[in-house]
UniProtKB/TrEMBL annotation:
Gene Ontology MF terms in the entry: glycosyltransferase activity
Species the sequence originates in: Candidatus Limivivens merdigallinarum
Name assigned to this protein: Glycosyltransferase family 2 protein
One Pfam family hit: Glycos_transf_2
Domain Glycosyltransferase 2-like: 7-173
């Protein structure tokens, strides 16, 4: 049965990678209805580049209006497709079958969400390359509530770098969190799974996407990740996430040794230490002074909104 697909992409200062993404979306084998771009800061968007593109709509936001979950949920309310593909501006489809292969997952009525495999970009470091293969293996699978005992936190793993959702279920279960610092994809995937749905990992749907984060960037990112987990115990309180992180470090160390790159082990240990420190600090963010929370977070606008909301409630 044919299902209409729309695409949503949040952007901020889009560049060459975004242009490549848009070109690849134009060449997909499965037809796309509308591409909705939720752009932060109009002055940074190259409007003239996309003005004549058929099926592309751009909505501009201020920096203060952007929210990881809220902006995506707002976009979902503008779209009328059966399935919506959420992507980020730095994810480029490997081939023209990305949308087609994600849509195939929904032939199973139990699948309410599906996400793509993320491949390392050409400039990706060796450690990050292994992390990609650890989180995005070459075998597809469908995850449900029955897998929680075996997979733990990985049961809820889903990434809006490139993820598709069944929109009737999206609306039924409230969509993405309207105000969240991070992890809106996993929070919502958890809701779907706990309500009897399944999330598919489509290894044959591939995008190039990777980052070479510095140690401090890893700390900031893991701080925000832990804050989101702390704020949603109804999802993350059901499974352990630290054990998965430890498994990744051990397997990466083994991989580096076997690959004949033992000199990269100190870098792995240093990166992992910063990740762990960020995670532990994020888990106790509510006990830290505001200035320190702001310094540790990657998403400082989130905390400004929190302050505004708190002040309005107290006034």
């Amino acid at each position: 049965m044919y299902q209409k697909v729309d695409v949503m992409i949040p952007t901020y200062k889009p560049g060459e990678t975004f242009r490549q993404l848009m070109e690849m979306l134009k060449n997909q084998t499965y037809p796309i209805g509308e591409i909705l771009i939720m752009n932060t800061e109009e002055k940074y968007f190259p409007e003239e580049t996309y003005r004549d593109w058929h099926g592309v709509r751009v909505i501009h936001l201020t920096r203060e209006e952007f929210d990881h979950g809220g902006t995506r949920d707002r976009a979902a309310n503008f779209l009328a497709a059966d399935l919506c593909l959420f992507m980020t501006q730095d994810a480029v489809p490997k081939d023209e079958h990305l949308v087609e292969n994600l849509v195939k997952c929904f032939e199973d009525p139990k699948v309410w969400a599906a996400y793509a495999r993320q491949l390392p970009k050409q400039d990706c470091s060796l450690i990050e390359r292994y992390t990609r293969s650890f989180n995005y293996p070459d075998k597809s699978r469908v995850k449900s509530k029955a897998d929680m005992g075996k997979l733990g936190i990985k049961t809820f793993f889903c990434s809006n770098v490139c993820a598709m959702y069944r929109m009737d279920r999206y609306r039924e279960y409230g969509g993405f969190e309207k105000h969240t610092i991070f992890n809106e994809d996993m929070i919502f995937a958890g809701k779907l799974i706990l309500n009897g749905g399944a999330v598919a990992y489509a290894a044959d749907a591939m995008v190039y996407h990777s980052h070479n984060y510095s140690c401090l960037e890893q700390l900031h990112r893991n701080f925000d990740l832990a804050v989101s987990q702390k704020q949603h115990p109804e999802i993350f309180g059901l499974v352990s996430s630290e054990s998965e992180g430890i498994r990744l470090v051990k397997q990466t160390a083994s991989y580096l040794a076997k690959a004949g790159k033992p000199w990269l082990l100190p870098e792995l240990i240093l990166q992992s230490g910063f990740k762990f420190l960020g995670y532990r600090l994020g888990k106790c963010y509510d006990k830290l002074p505001d200035f320190l929370v702001n310094a540790l977070s990657m998403n400082k606008h989130y905390w400004k909104k929190q302050t505004v909301q708190k002040d309005s409630r107290n006034s």
